[in-house]
Amino acid sequence: MSRPAGREPRRLTRWWRRRSLRSRLTVIAATAIAVSVFVAFQVASQLLGWELQDSAKSQLRADSRVLATNAQRAGLAQVQLPPYPGSGRLVRVILPGGSLRTPAGQPALPPVSEHAERVAQGASADLMESNDSDEDGYLIYTLRAGDGAVQVAQVADDSPINQFGFGMLLIGLLCVAGGALVGRTVARTGLAPIDRLTAAAVHVAHTRDLDADIPDEGGGEIRRLIQSINDMLAALRDSRRAQRLLAEDAAHELKTPLTSLRLNAELLIRLDRRGTLDSALPAESRTRLLNDLGAQVAELSTLVAELTDLARGDVSDENTELLDLADVVAAAATRARSRTPDVEVALDVTSVWVSGRPAALERAVLNLIDNAGKWSPADQPVQVRLRAEGASVVLEVDDAGPGIDAADVPRVFDRFYRADSARALPGSGLGLSIVQRVVDAHGGLATVARSARGGALLRVDLPAAAPPAPIARLTAQEDTAMRRPQPRPHGSGPKSDSRRAP
User: What is the DSSP code string of 370-429?
Assistant: First the structure.
C-alpha cells in the first residue's frame, strides 16, 4: 500500500513544532547562511566563467590577427606553422580549395563547420564559435585571410571554475558551521530573559507566591512581556487580597447574627425539653423571642444573598439592553414600599434611556432607597429624582436624616463599612458597595453629598443613550402636548410632579 503523499509534510511539520526555539533559531541561521553561500557561489561562478571566456576570446582574436597578417605576407600555403609545443593554443589554415594545414604534432581539431567555410569563402569577416564534444570542448575563432581563413582554437578549461567551486564549498561549510554556532549562541543569549521568566513563572506556580515580581530586564518585546506578567501578578495579588478580606469580613459579619440565632434557638430547645416553655416564657416574651428569631433569619438571609452577589465578581449574567431608567426606578420603589411599608418614597422622574442590565440597575436603586429609608424620619419621604443632564443621566436619592459625617464620606461605598451611628440599625454594610460596583460596571459615577433637607444625598451619574427610533422621531409639538399639564378636577389641590410608590 502506498503511503499518502501528504503524510511526510505533516510529519516534518510535527517534528519542526516539537523542536525548541533554540534549535529552530540554530537551524534557521545555518540554513540562511547555506542559502546565501550557495547563491553567492552561483553568481560568482557565472561571473568568473564570463570573465574567463571574454579573456579567452580576446586572446584568440589577437593571435588570429597575427597569424592572418603573416599568412597575407607569405601566403596561406607557405606561411610557417611552428610545431605544436604540447600545450597552448591550436591553429589551422583553411586553403581556398577547402584543404587544411595544421602544425606538426598538433591534436586534431573538430571538422570545419559550415559557418567557418563561409568565412573562408568571403561571406563574412570572422566567426567566434564553441564546440562541445564528449571529450574536450573548444573555443574556435575563424578570421578571413587572403583567399581562405585562419583558425585559432583553445581547449575550454573548467579547472579554474572547479577550483573556485571547491574553495567556495569549503568556505560555505565553515560558514554554515560558524553560523550554526553563532545562531546557537545568539539564541541562548537572546532567550536568557525568557528562561528566567519561565523559571519565575514555574516558581510562582509551584509555591503560589504571588509577591515574587519578575526582574525587569531586556528591552522591547521582552520588557513588555515581563511588565505584562508583573501586572498580571499584581492583579492576582489584589484578587487574592480581596477574596481574603471578603472571607474575613463575611466571617465577622456572620458571627453576630449566627450567635444570636443559636442562643435563642438553644433557649427554646432547652425550655421545651424541660417542659417549662409555657411557664418560663410568657406569651408576650415568647412572641418577642420568635419575632427576634424571624428578624435574625431575615437579616442572615439578606447578608448571605448580598455576600453571594458581591463574591460573584460580575454585575450579572443578563445581557445589556436599551431601557428606560424611569421604569427601573419605579419598579425599585415599588419593591422598597412592599418591603418597608412605613417608608414613603416620592418619585420625581422623567423618561431617560440608558444601555444597561435592568436587574442589576434595579438592585442598585433598591439599595439606595433602602439605605435612605433607614435614616429618613417617619414623616419625611425618601425623595428619588431622575433627570437628564447633557450626555448623562442623573439619579438622586436623598433623605431628611442626620446626614453622613465628613469622616465617613470617603468610606461610604466600602464593603462592610458601617458608621458608628449605624451599628444599631439593621444591615450588612454591603448595600452601597453593590451600588458602587453596578455603577462602575455601567461606566458611571456614584457620589455622596449633603441633602438640602439636611440628610444624605446619594447621586449616580450614568451615560445616556439615544432612545429607540420611534420615540426619537416624536415632533416638538407632540412632545410639548405630552408634557402639557392636564386640567384638574374642581376642588383638587395643587398638582405635584412627584409620583408616589404604591
Answer: HHHHHHS-TTSPEEEEEEEETTEEEEEEE-SSS---TTTGGGTTSTT---GGGTTSS--S
> What is the full DSSP assignment across 448-498?
EEE-TTSSEEEEEEEE--PPPHHHHT--HHHHHHHHSPPPPPTT-----S-
Do residues 187 and 22 touch, judged by C-beta distance below 8 A?
Answer: yes
Measured CA to CA in angstroms, residue 153 lies from 65, 72, 243 at distances of 13, 20, 96
**Amino acid 387: pLDDT:** 92
C-beta atoms surrounding 325 within 10 Å: 26
Helix (H) or strand (E) holding 255: helix 221-274
The b-or-e profile of 65-82 (16+ CB within 10 A means b, else e) is bebbebbeeeebeebebe
| Model confidence, pTM | 0.43
DSSP codes, 303-371: HHHHHHHHHT-SS-SSPPEEEEHHHHHHHHHHHHHHH-TTS-EEEEE---EEEE-HHHHHHHHHHHHHH
Q: Predicted confidence band at 481 (pLDDT cuts at 50, 70, 90)? A: very low
Residue 429 and residue 302: Cα distance in Å, rounded?
A: 11
According to DSSP H, which parts of 99-216 are helical? 114-120, 159-190, 192-207
Q: Are strands 382-389 and 90-94 parallel, antiparallel or unpaired?
A: unpaired
Q: In sequence order, which ranges of 83-146 are alpha helices (DSSP H)? A: 114-120
Secondary structure (DSSP) of 141-158? EEEEETTEEEEEEEE---
Sole residue written with cell 516539537:
18
